[in-house]
Amino acid sequence: MSSKVSRDTLYEAVWEVLHGNQCKHRNLQNYDPQKDKCFSGTVRLKSTPHPKFSMCVLGDQQHCDESKAMDIPQMDNEALKKLNKNKKLVKKLAKKYDAFLASETWWPKLMKSTIKFQMKKVLCLAVAVGHVTMTDDELVYNIHLAVNFLVSLLKKIWQNIRALYINSTMGKPQRLY
């Protein structure tokens, strides 16, 4: 399947996103850090923003032992294997806790490099394909893969795409298609 987004257009847009964002300085209004004194501080609130915040530790034996000592709920590899493929139990676990902490060994590189296209009621998709410290070639490759995969998921292929944009978090969007 040929792509309607040319490599030259992709490289130009990636360059604009990466380099166009660097020259724009963002700061507080009417606040010059050179002249005005910098500040930092902490304040204890009277009422907590998250009074019943609950978390669970998913980890190896060392992290489970540490969480037991602090009286924090934990799950090890064996407990998670019991949940495997059972959606009802997984949903029940997800609703029970507000946050999950996991050991670094649990997150393989595959999970970090996987993106998910999910069509909701809004007919607009946004997906993270990289970050500004990546090289142009890496970004172009990731964008090319993501666009081709998205096109393969759609009915009528390219006829269902009105426009494709890329942008950095605070940068101007660059139109690809």
From TrEMBL:
Note whether Magnesium occurs among the keywords: no
GO (cellular component) term, any one? large ribosomal subunit
InterPro entries to which the protein is assigned, alphabetical: eL8/uL1-like (IPR050257), Ribosomal_uL1 (IPR002143), Ribosomal_uL1-like (IPR023674), Ribosomal_uL1/biogenesis (IPR028364)
CDD domains from the UniProt entry: Ribosomal_L1
A GO biological process held by the record: translation
Domain of life where this protein originates? Eukaryota
Q: Name one GO molecular function term.
A: structural constituent of ribosome
Q: Which UniProt keywords apply?
A: Ribonucleoprotein, Ribosomal protein
The family note in this entry says: Belongs to the universal ribosomal protein uL1 family.
Q: What is this protein called?
A: 60S ribosomal protein L10a
Per the UniProt entry, what species is this protein from, by scientific name?
Answer: Muntiacus muntjak (Barking deer)
